[in-house]
């Protein structure tokens, strides 16, 4: 997330402000987990203070509690220092010696070239067990492993304006998903269509009688069919919302600074759910072909949603912004002339006479990576950002940001996958300088150099992708082989093999 | 538009209320047109009163001024009566003897099987000349044909709850498009990028100086590139809005009853612009393959837009509706239980505890052709409907309807078309019973039976499509060869050949 928030990043870097302490969740911090999100040793690690900018690693060490890298990297204090070195930009991956990630997932990351003090990307990879909250038949069940559900989970979180939100999301979002799935444990394992209505309390009289639950139809002639798949989608969507609400609640006490894009994969009962809120990206490379599994949410792609909101709720614009889009800033002396504009309902452009309120700054402006909402932020979905204000103003930006992901579903059982078929997740540091097709070419090149049953091939691939996007230091910058600039952003990549889920783990 | 508005249609049919007199447009009624939208003889035609339902043609004749069919059908009074006969449902096409439609366009229509008194579809096909309003250089131009622009225009308007809106749109929408294009005549013919800013008045000092017009950049580092194509899209979008506003202004004086879907094609400078607001559909059949050129706007496809509006502006729900979606109506006795729901941000479903306000009727309910907004209307975009209220209520529905079309652009110059390549426009009467592929098969079957240079083949194709959707009377209904019910709706079809624009006209 390079240069995507104008004010806060600069502030954080220049003031040397430490990222916030680790937030606690009253809802979820005590919830059991198959694998602790933060192992005890992480908080015991000697805190380090990394160098900022592209200077040599800093030598000072001060008390810090929350800066961390994903626990599966198993970084020693020295390793943590090296991972935090903007000058060397060493690529980090889980050690070959330790426990492999589920499905032999490959992972690699590299810190930015100095745009923020620490790597603001975070990652999480877990196997999560969901115990049913109760029986839908109304009879309380014995808590036993056999009746629960497992899901596999991968998350990439690209932070901006501080690392707090990304760190919190990487620790807690999968727990929110687990919470949402608790009600569905029995329903998802029952092949019959989900009940439309559930009893309020287990064992309530009559409430488990299906004929009562369905009830007579009023003026609707039929009831909608709701699929199991759409229940999982709804659970993931609501988990994102609860995660965001938790950040809002705890932002004062725990200083959940900044916000983050979130790209999450859930594998459950044969299906892969890819949920994206932000500008990270997921693609499947299958038999050499690219299948997009997400789209990016930016001021350009969400222009009409943003403008509609500004149009319907002009108070959110605070008299400082106009919901109309113009192709460039209007000069006061142009008042009365006619300028091209787009309103919230338009995809084309037309001319309008410039009036006084058109001189306000447009809610959405700029193009490509420079596009901004309220001249401030370059992504329009994600978690956090509850404190984000317009530069030199008290106007909050959060109302224009959405925490809801778009969820795409891929049925793993519909296609026989080979070991070279992979799902690649990357933060925008990867995609800013690498096209989908280039990733597919790297998949082919790297995987064909390894035996199909060598589980280390996916980490090698993730490393190759990160290195290919970072480049090498040359001519006062990080450069790609074609001499173009590499990505100076944090870069994080998961490579999830689709060819044999579970067979490597 | 069969059964898509619950209350008003029934009222109109049962009360025998006459459609409104022809509305006048203060803005546009005096504007010159290459071909008068309504030839003088139309208003002189002996008015007829057609039979309603599936009974024999009515014999009574009463004074009516506005019921009409497209002028290019050149219907005699007797022909008009036959076109209005619900029992015979004779397919209507332009006569072979008269002037052909531009591009040898094929057209056919048939009245409904009795669901409304008259055929509420309307159609328009015109060649429209646009004279530039002024020179962008600031020097007033001589009005001369050579400096203007021509566009070809086809429109299908599927009325509901009365024929007034469809009739008005068929007479005036292309004039609104012409009005919007007047400013663009010079710009569109100039290969350089459109100016971002125009002088307020022709010849104003300094206003034609491009360096002044562009001006220095403020905090935006670059200005957006706006294409000629996007100006035409913007012109069409705004024309729809002005048409809708004119209907709002004139609805009291001229009784512009009901509303209509609008599907419009503009051919201008090598490109085909397909603008759709409603549930009509356009497809291109090229080399036997189907290219969708529109999508339908219904309570199902626009659920999230509608829910968002109800969520942001709850006053529009009048305390009668909830913006949440439920898979069926909730019973009062289910209060406190947990029901599946979808909120405006969700594509999946989740359970929520039923509260008192969830007992309100959902803003969006039903499925497929039975989906409704506020239990009333089954399309969510179109023109008119300014008087439409929720059944037995004063709550207006118009705020939830959008008059803005989605515009898709097809570049005719990018592909060498053969005489069998066509653009097919149809109201939902066609598409309710005919798939895209079936249309493509009919295109192949009918056109191959005619010489490629026989201009009557496109009308034969339009007739075949309409007949195929209507079926034949059998077993107390109109039935297709497979014995399924044919469409009892009004059916209208344009077939526009792409293989030789202008070569037949």
For the residues shown, what is the average pLDDT of chain A?
83
Give the number of helices of chain A. Answer: 11
Which two chains have the most extensive interface, and how many residues on each?
A-B, 68 and 69 residues
Looking at the structure, the CATH topology of the largest domain in chain A is Phosphatase 2c, domain 1
Distance between the termini of chain A: 32 Å
Radius of gyration of chain A: 24 Å
Q: Tell me the structural class of chain A.
A: alpha+beta
Reading off the top of the CATH hierarchy, the class of the largest domain in chain A is best stated as: Alpha Beta
Low-confidence stretches of chain A: 7-27, 29-65, 202-219
- Assembly state of the chains shown: homodimer
Q: Superfamily at the CATH H level of the largest domain in chain A?
A: PPM-type phosphatase domain
Q: Tell me the CATH architecture of the largest domain in chain A.
A: 4-Layer Sandwich
Morphology of chain A = globular
Question: Got a strand count of chain A?
Answer: 20
- Beta strand % of chain A: 15-25%
GO molecular function, one term (chains A, B): [pyruvate dehydrogenase (acetyl-transferring)]-phosphatase activity
Organism (chains A, B): Suricata suricatta
Domain PPM-type phosphatase (chains A, B): 104-498
InterPro entries (chains A, B): PP2C, PPM-type-like_dom_sf, PPM-type_phosphatase-like_dom
